[in-house]
């Protein structure tokens, strides 16, 4: 049902480009980069994944990222994005992001960004979130093949508030940094790959100061156990 | 397979349906669901008359083929007669004067057999061919062939995958290296650092990483069970011979994605036909067969022992095996280990462009021990894919193929069309001249002209380029003896030219025969228009008729 709607939306968006030798094939896919338990400075369940439907020229994707702690969503972020190629290796992205964490105000942002593969095989996401509480985010990930099935994935993410967001205890240009390393094994094709790893995050500058003042930690490190899914 | 050692003979016998009385050979074929069981996996598949591959169809040159095809599937199907010269509305491409065969419907194909040799048939709808809808065709010649043999076997190669074709394409679109389990690892880095020094090993990785390409990207899809006549190496398809007999092997590569290097250890193979047409005999120890190609070779096993027919995929991920035995119950020794997989070089990345067939290109790289690289003019100079025979002997090159009797008089082409083979591996986009089929305009040819088509491969994959309904005369330096082919494999970074006598009106296709490259858009419609004939062209009047006037034999 939702798939049909998305397919219809994508096809409608493509109609002006019709009148070709054949209809552009529509593909879909689901990739859950992370679905993991985090253990260390607290315990949490976290996920980060996306589902897409569309053609080579235009895709609609739903991206979801969340951290569930003590039965409540510490963060819950959903994005609906349109994605179109702008260079050999990069797509431009535009869409909406809705944050609905528990115990903090909701936020709705417009998203513009780039998603693609940089030289030396770094998978890059660079997004700008525009609203009354603007921010920028940069994510990079690398797949290091220990063997053809044992894969180490180091990653880094920097979330940079571009203005103060007092309700969330964030200071302008005082980022949150996440660094991870996950060692996975491709158990079933590339569809199911369990992994273990470490996840470290810390707030910097004013964001750290405000968070500490609110009685929370500005730094945390976790051991993670999870699974990467693709289907 | 106890009890079925001579399955090949049973196969052939079962398929000799109603031998042609008179001028027409009438055959009935059902397109059906079936099961492919390789021993390693079972999957629901498509086939003909309840099996995959379908029956071997036999015709005689000069008769009319009348083939009633009944579709028992719940989706539309079609059969394309691969390599055949026929009226375009009998070619089996939906949209080309033919609507496809709807579920429950029977369609009757009718065309004159104007050629002889080894061919094959397969669905041209969706990805049905990759799901098992394929089979071999033998057309007996009207006149004696210029070679003799005592016995023949069809060796129909295929790559059966546990995943359905639609899933494979979706996975490739999501993650183009989904099936590549030959990528360079930490262990390779350590080995390379030991051999070349850490600096050189890292520099090499940086060079490839800069391009975002992989030297291991030779087969997009791995994980195949390599089949011969539908049987895996363990199932061991077996054909018979009497020592001293000349055995003709009709070898067809009906794979969706895999090129194979074929050998019969202990025997020299004499290549007598390529893509159904007689060539001056060439003795080789091994040859490479691209997807869609056929080669007929003659071997003469003299010893009272079992021989193996081995077909090793080019990236060395799989080896098909069949046996030739003088007596029931014999089995050859187990297949040998796969050879070291080749690696693409910077020459394959197109550094040798702009120089025909790669002669004297600048991109070549000698092996690190200083030995000169193997040479074949149809590979970029210094290519990592240039084949080397398993025993250090002779490996067939396209340059060795010379038509026994040219199908057409030799003449200068009227014009040249350059077709760039293009793609983007990271997005799994495949195209011609950077335009996918869905966005393309047809290539327009004029009836009666001779067109030179030059393929410039700008990608890192080998593309088996197939033209429907018109012969591809391969420019391989044999002048008037240009061999007539229906598939010409163009290696990465290489350029190859064919000449086409445009003598059949209608709509045809030009496409890469790798199933997922074609599906991704590496295809063009060809429209042959009744245009004015160029100087030196053949008389077009009345040439649209389908009388058997070709195959000069």
In the predicted model, the low-confidence regions of chain A spanning at least 5 consecutive residues are 10-19
Report on the biggest sheet of chain B: 6 strands, mixed
Query: What is the first-to-last residue Cα distance of chain B?
Result: 41 Å
Order of helices and strands of chain A: HEEEEEEEEEEEEHE
Task: Give structural notes.
The complex is a heterodimer of chains A (231) and B (553). With 231 residues, chain A is mainly β. Helices cover 10% and strands 60% of the residues of chain A. Chain A has helices spanning 2-14, 205-213; strands at residues 27-40, 42-54, 59-69, 72-85, 90-99, 107-118, 122-130, 135-141, 144-145, 150-161, 176-185, 192-203, 219-230. In chain A, strands 1-2-3-4-5-6-7-8-10-11-12-13 form a 12-stranded antiparallel barrel. The longest helix of chain A is centred in the N-terminal third of the chain and has 13 residues, at 2-14. Chain A is globular and about 60 Å long. Residues 10-19 of chain A have low confidence and may be disordered. In chain B, α3 (186-196) packs across α4 (198-211). A 6-stranded mixed sheet of chain B has the order 10-9-12-17-14-15, with no helix packed on it. A 6-stranded mixed sheet of chain B has the order 21-20-23-28-25-26. Chain B is globular and about 70 Å long. Chain B is mainly beta and 553 residues long. Chain B has 6 helices and 30 strands. In chain B, β20 and β21 form a beta hairpin. Chains A and B meet through β1 and β9 of A and α2 and α4 of B.
């Amino acid at each position: 049902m939702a798939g049909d709607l998305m397919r219809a939306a994508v096809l409608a968006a493509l109609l002006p480009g019709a009148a070709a030798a054949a209809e552009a094939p529509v593909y879909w896919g689901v990739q859950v980069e992370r679905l993991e338990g985090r253990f260390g400075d607290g315990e949490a369940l976290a996920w980060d994944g996306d589902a897409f439907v569309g053609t080579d020229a235009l895709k609609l994707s739903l991206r979801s990222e969340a951290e569930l702690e003590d039965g409540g969503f510490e963060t819950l972020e959903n994005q609906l994005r349109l994605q179109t190629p702008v260079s050999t290796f990069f797509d431009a992205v535009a869409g909406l992001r809705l944050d609905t964490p528990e115990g903090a105000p909701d936020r709705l942002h417009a998203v513009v960004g780039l998603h693609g593969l940089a030289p030396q095989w770094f998978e890059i996401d660079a997004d700008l979130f525009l609203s009354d509480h603007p921010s920028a985010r940069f994510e990079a990930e690398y797949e290091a093949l220990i063997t053809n099935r044992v894969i180490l994935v180091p990653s880094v993410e920097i979330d940079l508030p571009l203005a103060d967001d007092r309700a969330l205890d964030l200071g302008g240009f005082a980022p949150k940094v996440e660094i991870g390393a996950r060692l996975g094994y491709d158990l079933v094709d590339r569809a199911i790959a369990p992994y273990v790893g470490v996840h470290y995050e810390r707030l910097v500058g004013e964001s750290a100061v405000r968070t500490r003042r609110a009685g929370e930690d500005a730094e945390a490190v976790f051991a993670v156990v999870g699974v990467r899914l693709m289907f | 397979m106890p009890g079925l050692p001579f399955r090949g003979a049973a196969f052939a016998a079962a398929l000799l349906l109603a031998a042609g009385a008179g001028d027409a050979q009438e055959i009935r074929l059902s397109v059906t669901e079936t099961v492919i069981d390789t021993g390693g996996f079972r999957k629901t598949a498509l086939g003909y008359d309840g099996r995959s591959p379908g029956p071997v169809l036999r015709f005689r040159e000069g008769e009319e083929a009348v083939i009633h095809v009944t579709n028992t599937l719940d989706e539309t199907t079609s059969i394309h007669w691969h390599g055949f010269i026929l009226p375009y509305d009998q070619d089996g491409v939906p949209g080309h004067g033919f609507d496809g065969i709807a579920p429950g419907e029977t369609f009757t194909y009718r065309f004159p057999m104007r050629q002889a040799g080894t061919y094959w048939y397969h669905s041209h709808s969706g990805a049905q061919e990759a799901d098992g809808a394929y089979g071999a065709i033998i057309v007996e010649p009207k006149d004696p062939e210029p070679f003799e043999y005592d016995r023949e076997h069809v060796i129909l190669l295929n790559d059966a995958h546990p995943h359905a074709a639609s899933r494979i394409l979706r996975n490739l679109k999501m993650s183009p290296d989904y099936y590549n389990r030959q990528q360079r690892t930490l262990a390779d880095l350590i080995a390379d650092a030991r051999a070349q020094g850490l600096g050189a090993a890292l520099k090499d990785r940086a060079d490839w990483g800069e391009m975002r390409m992989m030297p291991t990207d030779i087969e997009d899809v791995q994980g195949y069970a390599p089949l011969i006549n539908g049987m895996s190496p363990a199932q061991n398809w077996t054909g018979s011979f009497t020592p001293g007999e000349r055995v003709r092997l009709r070898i067809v590569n009906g794979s969706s994605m895999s090129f194979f290097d074929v050998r019969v250890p202990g025997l020299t193979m004499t290549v007598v036909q390529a893509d159904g047409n007689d060539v001056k005999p060439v003795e080789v120890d091994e040859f490479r067969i691209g997807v869609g190609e056929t080669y007929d070779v003659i071997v003469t096993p003299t010893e009272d022992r079992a021989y193996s027919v081995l077909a090793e995929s080019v990236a060395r991920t799989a080896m098909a095996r069949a046996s030739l035995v003088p007596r029931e119950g014999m089995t050859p020794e187990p297949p040998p280990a796969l050879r070291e997989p080749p690696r693409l070089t910077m020459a394959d990345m197109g550094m040798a462009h702009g120089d025909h067939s790669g002669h004297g290109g600048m991109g070549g790289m000698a092996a690190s021990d200083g030995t000169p690289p193997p040479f074949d003019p149809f590979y970029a100079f210094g290519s990592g894919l240039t084949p080397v025979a398993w025993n250090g002997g002779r490996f067939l090159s396209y340059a060795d193929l010379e038509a026994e009797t040219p199908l057409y008089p030799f003449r200068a082409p009227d014009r040249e069309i350059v077709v760039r083979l293009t793609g983007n591996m990271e997005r799994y986009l495949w195209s011609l001249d950077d335009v996918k089929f869905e966005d393309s305009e047809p290539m327009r040819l004029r009836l009666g002209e001779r067109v030179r088509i030059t393929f410039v491969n700008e990608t890192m994959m080998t593309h088996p380029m197939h033209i429907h309904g018109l012969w591809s005369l391969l420019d391989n330096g044999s002048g008037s003896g240009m061999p007539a082919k229906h598939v010409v494999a163009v290696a990465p970074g290489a350029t190859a030219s064919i000449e086409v006598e445009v003598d059949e009106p209608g709509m045809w296709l030009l496409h890469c025969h790798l199933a997922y490259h074609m599906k991704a858009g590496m295809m063009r419609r060809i429209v042959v228009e009744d245009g004015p004939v160029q100087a030196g062209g053949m008389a077009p009047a009345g040439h649209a008729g389908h009388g058997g006037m070709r195959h000069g034999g």
